[in-house]
Write a structure and sequence with these properties.
16 helices; alpha/beta; 2 domains; 532 residues; Nitrilase/N-carbamoyl-D-aminoacid amidohydrolase; Rossmann fold; six-stranded mixed sheet
Length: 532
């Protein structure tokens, strides 16, 4: 008996378009002789629908779409995620459909309520594990978190009452997630002695990126099929006992690149944007962001603006021009010296007798932000901000300056990883896309004479190691210092992170690619007196 996993990219709230995708994949599966098609979690509504679930019309429309899906199930079985409503309570549900009939509905039993997940805000947990017959299979049905918890619904299934376990999922990507999933599915297959069919969403929704990579594992815990990553796919499996496939090693940089490209592309397409504008300083952050934007949107839809000041080196301007030429994008040079001088002249009576400091530095960043936003308003471009996670962590960024824009592409990528990804891009291209001088020169904001990032920060290798332990691994000052870092430095970095919370909560939406990003999964109060 043939099973297909329909790994689709739904859009939250676009239920009619989601139905078209569902219908298209059913039709393709039928042409291949498939008897059971498995769709991901909440693919009728898109995931996560968040507070749209409070709208009665939204929930009603989702049930109407499900009824239409039931009508598409002639001579085959379907399992699909939707929102069920019972006596005013909502459930994250899987519909079991066969030959034009809704046979059963399973309610997700384990609702995640951590990191980016807050399903307990919306849903009531199910109370009963379900094993049922559909399309000739006896199926143990689970939804996403159900398979992650120990002693969860999977423990109810065995060879005496079940042929296979199906898990429909909306599991977002982060670095290292692939191995976590594969290890988990292997473990569950061995524990139960049953094959596992795992259907995951693909596509980006706001800050979340779903990588797809649906799987089939046999009862020995061997991976026998894997869907494409970061794109839609229809994965068809004829034999659940077949030999394992050759396991490809996880390519961290390839995955990161594809994730960020998909995040940009879906954010633009799903929100109706077509073109972008970004500042090109000649530095590595804006260069990497530009490369990703061109890959996601096409070079004709990316516009670069170089805005040199009297502190900008000729090398930086040359690097911006070289990058634009390599990418084939339009670059305009808009010097800001005259505007900056006018600001200083206006402010001189108020600044008289005071030394040049961060105030004058930030004016330059805000002039640049103003230029970019003016172009955005005039031409309908979405501005991409180009700051990295290291800078955002310690507040090395200017509110309403380099932080202004509609999408923060690399705000969850540490600076050291920015370098790694930039080198990977050039290596894959077999030539310099990002100029080598951009990669090798010492990083600088170029907002004052002879400025270097290391004037304010430790070397990024050291900074990122401390930030990773504090932010992503939730370690305290003493624990981090015990790893070999100066206690004074650790204390300073932690203080910078904590003091910058007010900035981060005003930042543009960022794409989540790490286990813990700034955004919906990290909820630290701005006003608090806690100190490490």
């Amino acid at each position: 008996m043939t099973i297909a996993i329909a790994q689709i990219n739904p859009t939250v709230g676009d239920l009619d378009r989601n139905l078209e995708k569902i219908s298209d994949h059913i039709a393709k599966a039928r042409m291949k002789g498939v008897k059971l098609v498995v769709f991901p979690e909440l693919c009728v509504t898109g995931y996560p629908p968040k507070d749209l679930l409070s709208k009665k019309a939204f929930v009603k429309k989702n049930k109407e779409i499900l009824e239409k899906v039931v009508g598409l199930s002639r001579d085959m079985g379907l399992i699909i995620g939707f929102v069920d409503e019972r006596e005013g309570r909502l459930f994250n549900a899987a519909a079991v459909i066969e030959d034009g009939e809704l046979k059963a509905v399973y309610h997700k039993m384990n609702l995640p309520n951590y990191d980016v997940f807050d399903e307990k805000r919306y849903f009531t947990p199910g109370s009963q594990a379900v094993s049922l017959a559909v399309a000739g299979f006896r199926v143990g049905l689970t939804i996403c978190e159900d398979i992650w918890v120990e002693d969860g619904p999977v423990s109810n299934f065995s060879g005496s009452n079940t042929d296979l376990i199906i898990n429909i999922s909306g599991s977002p990507y982060h670095l290292g997630k692939r191995k976590l999933r594969e290890d988990l599915l292997r473990k569950r297959a061995l524990e139960s002695g049953l094959p596992i069919v795992y259907a995951n969403l693909v596509g980006a929704q706001d800050d979340l990126i779903f990588d797809g990579r649906s799987y089939v594992f046999n009862q020995k815990g061997e991976k026998i099929a894997e869907a494409k990553s970061f794109e839609e796919d229809l994965l068809i499996v004829d034999d659940l006992i077949t030999a394992p496939i050759v396991v490809s090693e996880e390519e961290e940089m390839k995955d990161l690149y594809q994730a960020l490209v998909l995040g940009i592309r879906d954010y633009f397409q799903k929100n109706g944007f077509k073109k972008t504008v970004l500042g090109l300083s000649g530095g590595i952050d804006s260069a990497l962001t530009a490369v990703l934007a061109v890959e996601a949107l096409g070079k004709e839809n990316v516009r670069g603006i170089s805005m040199p000041s009297k502190f900008s080196s000729s090398g930086s301007v040359d690097d911006a021009k070289a990058l634009a030429e390599n990418l084939g994008i339009d670059l305009q040079v808009v010097p800001i010296k005259a505007v900056f001088d006018n600001y200083l002249e206006t402010l001189n009576p108020h600044f008289e007798g005071m030394p040049f400091n961060v105030a004058e530095e930030n004016i330059q960043a805000r002039i640049r932000g103003n230029f970019l936003m003016a172009l955005s308003n005039k031409f309908g471009y979405l501005v991409l901000t180009t700051g990295n996670k290291s800078e955002l962590s310690v507040g090395y960024a200017t509110l309403y300056g380099d932080m202004c824009g509609g999408l923060a592409v690399i705000s969850d990528v540490f600076k050291t990883k920015v370098y790694d990804l930039s080198r990977y891009i050039n290596q894959q291209a077999g030539k310099e896309i990002i100029p080598s001088s951009t990669i090798t020169k010492e990083p600088s904001a170029e907002l004052r004479e002879d400025q270097r990032d290391t004037d304010s920060l430790p070397p990024y290798e050291m900074l990122d190691a401390i930030l990773r332990e504090y932010i992503e691994n939730d370690k305290g000052k003493e624990e981090i210092a015990a790893l070999g870092f100066s206690e004074e430095l650790v204390k300073k970095i932690i203080s910078m992170v904590d003091r910058s919370e007010y900035k981060r909560q005003q930042a543009a939406l960022g794409l989540k690619v790490s286990p813990l990003a700034f955004g919906s999964g990290r909820r630290v109060p701005i006003t608090n007196r806690w100190k490490e």
